[in-house]
Design brief:
single chain, 413 residues, alpha/beta, 16 strands, globular, binds ligand T4K
Length: 413
């Protein structure tokens, strides 16, 4: 039973017993039907076909195409390598425009290949790249724009398509968060030149590690398949530069098993999201990021926005108090890619062009959810948050006197 707080002294940050005896994570993996998975792993072993375009890989790719309504799916060992393979296959060079408010992988994939990521500001409401700011960032060296469907909420796809079409640029989407989500009723995965999904363990559909590039472009798909497998076009023929981006059979088995529970996972995420929203609705200074009921979402991220002026304490203080209670909230995507290396050193003034990114990165906090977090736990997390809010002024005064607790895992401030 979670420990209920009635006095400030009972908060774990000041020495009380943590509300939860075990840690609650944001990215606790969803596990589908264990027997089905183990059966599939046995099949892999019996077949002695462990990787290299195996039958589970092919089935996984086919199921993704059917679900998304896209022609080609090229499954890869993770989304970061997928982004790199795509960047090469589509021949990007020079500068590529992307948001700074994303996981570092989006930028690193470009930089890794010697392409300059140009960070662009976001729309503070949608948290996604702002097409107006994209327009301003285009130079003669720009070859593409990468939109990121942050939290699975779609970018302004129409505006980005229009803009990139006018400037003859490639348009890619990092859809790492957006499997199972839709834009104007059409599934994410078939927009732009290509999109990328992540099936990392922390994603609501996972293949332990994994990802997929999806596209309707036949020629690009053929290049991607070659590039994923060292460029091999036959046993002794290498047709182009390639790498090893293959997904193995055990990962594909997990991906397939995960897909079969998709509706169940979404239902658990939706239940948690709704419960957080209802419980926290009245709280001044905190809002739960809404998902438009008219579209499909996977609800895998429950995102708080904290307004320090209205709440009394800031996001980092709330984060610290919750971590002490074993609620391991995450400050995605703090501090923004532009403040991480090597980008920070390359352009120390980038933040001046990214006011919305800077402001948002200081306000967001992701809460534990997924099928591993029960509705009783969500209720107890909300009780702790509401308790903190009630005593925010007194806590703030205390923080001014005493040093803030830092969980040993946490290194950056
Ligand atoms: N583009 C975007 C927009 C992305 O968000 C990502 C990845 C990518 C591209 C690249 O995709 P991949 O190359 O990874 O396929 C996590 C994930 O590792 C990362 O995949 C994800 N985005 C990012 C948003 O979150 P970290 O550094 O926060 O991971 P970590 O290890 O701190 O785990 C998060 C939480 O989950 C922790 O509380 C621990 C818990 N956890 C984690 C794992 C791996 C578990 O409970 N069990 C587990 O097995 O990046």
């Amino acid at each position: 039973m979670p420990a209920v707080k009635s006095r400030i002294e009972e908060l774990a940050i000041v020495g009380g017993r943590p509300a939860f005896s075990t840690e609650l994570h944001v990215g606790r993996p969803n596990i589908g039907n264990r027997q089905t998975l183990l059966g599939r792993i046995n099949d892999v072993l019996d077949r002695r076909w462990l990787t290299n375009d195996g039958p589970f890989l092919q089935e996984f790719e086919k199921r993704i195409c059917e679900r998304i309504g896209v022609k080609h799916c090229i499954a890869v060992c993770n989304a970061t390598i997928g982004l790199e393979i795509l960047t090469k296959a589509i021949a990007l060079s020079g500068e590529v425009i992307l948001p700074s408010f994303t996981f570092i992988a989006t930028a690193h994939a470009l930089q890794w290949l010697g392409i300059t990521p140009v960070f662009c500001d976001i729309d503070p409401v949608t948290h996604n790249i702002d097409p107006l700011r994209v327009g301003e960032a285009i130079t003669e060296r720009t070859t593409a724009v990468i939109g990121v469907h942050v939290w699975g909420r779609p970018c302004n796809v129409d505006a980005l398509v229009d803009l990139t079409h006018r400037h003859k640029l490639k348009l890619l989407f990092d859809a790492a968060h957006a499997f199972g989500c839709s834009y104007k009723g059409r599934m994410i995965g078939s927009f732009g030149n290509a999109e990328i999904f992540s099936f990392h363990a922390t994603k609501f559909i996972n293949s332990f590690e994994g990802g997929a590039i999806v596209t309707n472009d036949d020629e690009l798909a053929a290049k991607l398949r070659l590039a994923r497998n060292f460029g091999f076009a036959g046993l002794d023929t290498v047709a182009c530069l390639g790498t090893n981006g293959k997904m193995n059979e055990v990962s594909a088995a997990m991906g397939l098993t995960s897909l079969e529970s998709l509706e169940k996972f979404v239902a658990a995420n939706y239940r948690n999201y709704k419960q957080y929203q209802q419980e926290i609705a009245e709280a001044p200074g905190i809002s739960v990021l809404p998902y438009d009921e008219g579209e499909k979402f996977n609800y895998q991220y429950v995102v708080l926005e904290i307004d320090e002026d209205a709440m009394g304490i800031n996001r980092d203080e709330l984060d610290d108090i919750l971590w002490a209670e074993n609620v391991l909230t995450r400050r995605y995507f703090y501090p923004g890619c532009h403040r991480m290396e090597p980008y920070r050193t390359d352009d120390p003034q980038a933040g001046l062009r990214l006011p919305h990114t800077e402001r948002l990165a200081a306000r967001v906090l992701c809460l534990p959810t997924g099928s591993g977090v029960s509705s009783g736990e969500v209720c107890a997390i909300c009780d702790v948050i509401k308790f903190i809010m009630k005593h925010a002024t007194a806590l703030k005064e205390r923080f001014l006197i005493e040093p803030i607790f830092r969980h040993p895992w946490r290194s950056s401030s």
